[in-house]
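Shipment paperwork, digital attachment
Item: protein structure file
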Amino acid sequence: TIAMILKNKNKVTEAVKGSASLKAMRLTKIGEGPVSDMEKLLMTWIEDQTQKHIPLSTIMIMAKAKSLFAMLKEKAGPDYDVEFTASSRWFKLFKNHYSLHNVKVSGESVSADVKAAEEFLETLDKLIVEENYLPEQIFNMDETSLFWKWMPERTFIHKEAKSMPGFKAFKDRITVLLGGNVAGYKLKPFVIWHSENPRAFKHISKHTLPVYYRSNKKSWMTQLLFQDALLNCYASKMEKYCLENNIPFKILLIVDNAPGHPPFIGDLHPNIKAVFLPPNTTSLIQPMDQGVIAAFKAYYLRRTFAQAIAATEEDTDAILEGLQHL
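Attachment content:
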């Protein structure tokens, strides 16, 4: 490889010069006007959030960038036709230009039993073959805690700042039970909170909600609540789904052995057979834990932070005026 490069060094040199010249022209063009002003405002906003000990995720920064650019483009007038999408490439250049780096706010590790997971999968495969279960008949359900006032675990700060002071996270949470089958059918989420009649439901009927709502003093999943979810919410939906797909109403339900899951789940309904995952294998083979719960929380955070960014837009003019005085 080195010999080929040395042999063609003139061609390589010319190619590099042309590429560098083109890149310089492109950056010069893009770095002018609202884009450049937006990045300056964005960096001012990031520093302000850092001083307030508010962690920032990539999604939050990109959303703020697009919002700032839209405002500046509107002020620039109809003649300015440059589009800005806050791409990952732009973010990488922006991060390098302003010397931002990503630091972890908090973290937690979990151990898993790999051998038990492998043995269980073999047993489950045999059961599916012997009982002739179809993908539409194999369901999985799992609950997760959602700290709905949660802040990102990582944030972007200037490289000169080695760390960021910690903050006290809000502990208010809800429990969400998610479920679906192998074929991709999604069950309606089952939500548990401590308030029986939340203030937000004052003029809303619980029957019109996009979730099943129940209350519990500690917002935990209990055996009674799980039994309620399976018998009063999901069994009829599963039966209707099977009838619509012209398949027998015969369900294989895969759940973990959490305290909130009754050990007698298989006896609750004649058409539902329950199989429990071995201890410490959830992170490895729990279907809901293989991206479903993570995707659900990611969408929730994206929507929540988008609303939070919109709520801070009223401060944008003040930041812009301050920047103009610099």
